[in-house]
Design goal:
With 295 residues, this protein is of the alpha/beta class. It is built from eleven helices and eight strands.
Length: 295
């Protein structure tokens, strides 16, 4: 990774920070994003202390807001003319239905639309970086719980029904469908896209996840004996991001250092195309942008 540049969203804590640290140790210039500037400054200071010879930067941006996603991409391009690895890691799990300023249910906005929009906005830089050597790599953070998700194309915004985990799993299912379709379109421009499921991870999202009252007392035990540390969970991301073994591999799903099959619905190409087009509409990605993706 020496001489390469990586961008990790949600990189100021937890899994994202562990991924950023690993990429820095491999020699990359690493840019992390987050909503809180003070938290970002602390993360950069800690990452630089661990890797004093490496360059680590912070870019502030709220990925729930589409204009902020575009602004984040603009700020990145102003500082960097290359991007070799993009890790779309930012996420959330809400106890109640929340709607963004763009009118999108927040979990769908950050897990599905934000990665699509940010990748599209940064595509010229990714494509140019890939043309200089090995393909640029995009990685979307997935979740094994997507297998329990049901996708209702008529209710992507969870207006009819919202339950925290159901909506979260639905968003993760949609993320895979959109990601696989995007991977097919990117194959012509020397950019790969894969999904990585980190499994249970000891992060704030795990600790604060909305669960039934009778499960809450078990969470400390689950965290202790089942969940992995962010550093362990980051290893699959680091391999997919940097190992020569993954050169040219795209549209795949990885977990615990192995390629696996995601839920059956995620391989329905017709559903993926329709969902991709609807998400492009919701994210206001233009026809020109879609053409540049090989649509």
């Amino acid at each position: 990774m020496s001489g390469k540049t990586a961008l990790v969203t949600g990189g100021t804590a937890g899994l994202g920070k562990a991924i950023a640290a690993g990429l820095a140790r491999q020699g990359a210039t690493v840019v992390v994003t987050g909503r809180d500037r003070a938290r970002g400054a602390r993360a950069v200071a800690e990452l630089e202390a661990e890797n004093p010879q490496r360059r680590v930067e912070f870019l502030q941006g709220d990925l729930l807001i589409q204009s902020a996603v575009r602004q984040l991409a603009t700020h990145f391009r102003a500082r960097h003319d290359r991007l070799h690895v993009l890790v779309n890691n930012a996420g959330l799990l809400t106890a109640r239905r929340q709607v963004t300023v763009d009118g999108i249910e927040s979990q769908f906005a950050i897990h599905v639309l934000a990665p699509l929009l940010l990748t599209t906005e940064l595509l010229p830089t990714l494509r140019e970086s890939g043309q200089q050597g090995a393909a640029a790599r995009v990685i979307n953070t997935s979740a094994g719980s997507h297998r329990f998700g049901t996708l209702d194309p008529a209710d992507l915004n969870a207006e009819r029904s919202f339950k925290p985990w159901i909506s979260y799993n639905k968003a993760k299912t949609a993320s895979l469908l959109v990601g696989y379709e995007l991977a097919r379109r990117l194959s012509a421009v020397h950019v790969t896209l894969n999904a990585v499921d980190p499994g249970g991870v000891k992060t704030d999202l795990f600790r604060t996840a909305p669960v039934p009252w009778y499960v809450r007392p078990l969470m400390p035990l689950l965290e202790r004996f089942v969940a992995q540390t962010p550093e362990v969970a980051a290893q699959t991301f680091l391999s997919v991001a940097s190992s020569p073994n993954f050169e040219g591999i795209t549209g795949r799903y990885f977990s615990n250092m192995r390629e696996r099959r995601s839920a059956k619905i995620t391989y329905d190409d017709a559903v993926a195309r329709r969902l991709f087009e609807e998400c492009a509409r919701l994210a206001h990605i233009s026809t020109r942008d879609l053409s540049s993706l090989g649509a």
